[in-house]
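Query structure, 318 tokens:
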């Protein structure tokens, strides 16, 4: 959902529009623009994925200042933001510690802690907003962990997951698996913070990583359904587990990976064939886009699953 595009706002009203999009009476902040003139530009988008909010902004330089006064005046339910810097060099300041942030950094802020955050020149970020109550960690634990996230062995795993999640937010928003993805993401972020704040071998950390593996595996597979090299070996490697462990987790959930992939690919193809936006694609092209090796194999599988050939199904939906 598009929240704001300053190109549609009169130049003299852009600063107020930007401020209104980032703050309100219940969540106060100060916003300082690097160049508060006609050159100011910004585009903000928001998606909801299974109860989580994903927020994207691309803009000219600015800083958000959240002071002790703002924290005292905070009346909404607090959230913890988990951000990736997708363009530019960003900076933050929390507890007197100033940090430069790049594309390989995860940035975590708790709304009940004063901070400064922003960037110079053009920049962009994508943020995941998690209800602090849902995360269930004390404010001080979040602040302590945020200062040393890279000390956690879960850092690279979480970074890869967040990149995929924020990149595919629009597609995931209406996916039936979105609630499970949201739960797995919350648990993974909790595990990262606990790991960074304390011993990574703590039971809570190991449990969160283990319990979210199935959901993360299935979400990963859905994102890559159209790729012919989506093998068990590739899926296992992407999640830092062995193929044996992958099959063990799937087996415990009663999931046959091969049959699950076929069913998901068939359902994706069924939706495409019923969608007029893809009318220019042949049945063979739809099959290829959905990860099938050839149109004949696809047609046999489709008829077996739905009782109609792909062409018959496309005609019926018309």
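Result returned for the query:
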């Amino acid at each position: 959902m598009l929240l704001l595009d300053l190109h549609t706002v009169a130049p003299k009203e852009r600063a107020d529009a930007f401020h209104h999009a980032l703050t309100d009476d219940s969540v106060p902040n100060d916003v300082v623009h690097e160049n508060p003139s006609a050159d100011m530009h910004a585009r903000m988008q928001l998606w909801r994925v299974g109860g989580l909010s994903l927020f994207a902004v691309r803009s000219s330089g600015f800083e958000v200042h959240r002071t002790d006064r703002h924290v005292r005046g905070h009346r909404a339910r607090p959230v913890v933001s988990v951000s990736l810097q997708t363009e530019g060099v960003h900076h933050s300041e929390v507890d007197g510690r100033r940090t430069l942030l790049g594309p390989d950094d995860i940035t975590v802020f708790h709304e009940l802690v004063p901070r400064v955050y922003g960037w110079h020149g053009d920049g962009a970020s994508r943020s995941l907003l998690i209800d602090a109550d849902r995360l269930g960690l004390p404010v001080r634990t979040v602040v302590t962990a945020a200062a040393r996230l890279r000390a956690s062995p879960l850092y690279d795993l979480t970074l890869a997951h967040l990149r995929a999640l924020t990149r595919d937010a629009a597609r995931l928003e209406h996916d039936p698996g979105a609630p499970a993805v949201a739960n797995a993401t919350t648990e993974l972020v909790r595990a990262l913070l606990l790991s960074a704040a304390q011993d990574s071998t703590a039971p809570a950390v190991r449990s969160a990583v283990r319990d979210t593996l199935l959901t993360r595996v299935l979400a990963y597979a859905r994102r890559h359904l159209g790729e012919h090299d989506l093998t068990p070996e590739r899926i296992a490697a992407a999640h830092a587990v062995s193929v044996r462990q992958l099959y063990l987790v799937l087996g415990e959930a009663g999931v046959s990976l091969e049959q699950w992939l076929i069913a998901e690919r068939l359902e994706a193809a069924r939706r495409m064939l019923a969608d007029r936006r893809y009318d220019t694609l042949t049945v063979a092209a739809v099959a290829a886009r959905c990860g099938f090796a050839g149109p004949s194999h696809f047609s046999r599988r489709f008829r077996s699953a739905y009782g109609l050939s792909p062409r018959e199904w496309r005609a019926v939906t018309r």
